[in-house]
Amino acid sequence: MPTHLLIVADTHVPKRARDLAPALWHEIEAADVVLHAGDWVDETLLDAFEARARRLVAVRGNNDHGALRERLPEVARVEVDGVRIAVVHETGSAKGREERCSAAYDDVDVLVFGHSHIPWDTTSTTGLRLLNPGSPTDRRRQPHCTYLTATADQGALLDVTLHRVDRS
After folding, report:
1. Mapping DSSP to helix (H, G, I), strand (E, B) and coil, where does residue 51 land?
2. For residues 38 and 87, what is the distance between their CA atoms, to the nearest angstrom?
3. Residue 16 — φ and ψ, nearest 5°?
4. DSSP state, 165?
């Protein structure tokens, strides 16, 4: 059976929003695996994700301190339905990102990252797929707040889709 993934980062609750949009909470509960690439800001949100997600793979971001730093790793690695995935918050400058990440994460198929709040979906020359879901609460210079969904199925990552967050 294919595995439904929800990919999110840079939630920044309660600094950028009091809570996540109801539709995103629905996605969190519906997903088989939720991947969160850091910048939670508050431990209460992590607790809520752990309570509502079937399976959570999460890392800390540069805005995560105290208990969040103690509870979350800097890098998480998981295999989901044959797809080898690493999750990290920061990857550095956009210039040279594919080559730099291909060298640093040569043992995975997909690298999920955050930090920039800019949606990103590229594949390096080595075949590493790099995904940034943007932010569901702080669009910065982007037209919309966003997150990603995808499907892992027998070693392939399929149906990667960027979703706009409706705040109502």
Report:
1. helix
2. 9
3. -100, -20
4. P
Sheet holding 110-112, edge to edge: 75-80, 83-88, 110-112, 129-132, 120-123
Long-range contacts of 99-103 (CB under 8 A, 24+ apart): 99/124, 99/125, 101/128, 101/130, 102/126, 102/128
Domains of the chain (ranges plus CATH)?
3-164 (3.60.21.10)
- Strand ranges (DSSP E) for 50-155? 56-58, 75-80, 83-88, 110-112, 120-123, 129-132, 146-153
Residue 61 near residue 40, CB atoms below 8 Å: yes
What pLDDT digit, counting tens, does each position of 106-159 carry? Answer: 999 999 999 999 999 999 999 999 999 999 999 988 899 999 999 999 999 999
- Structure tokens that stand for 72 in this block: 């979350």
Residue 128 and residue 134: Cα distance in Å, rounded? Answer: 19
Distance in angstroms (rounded) separating the CA atoms of residues 168 and 117: 20
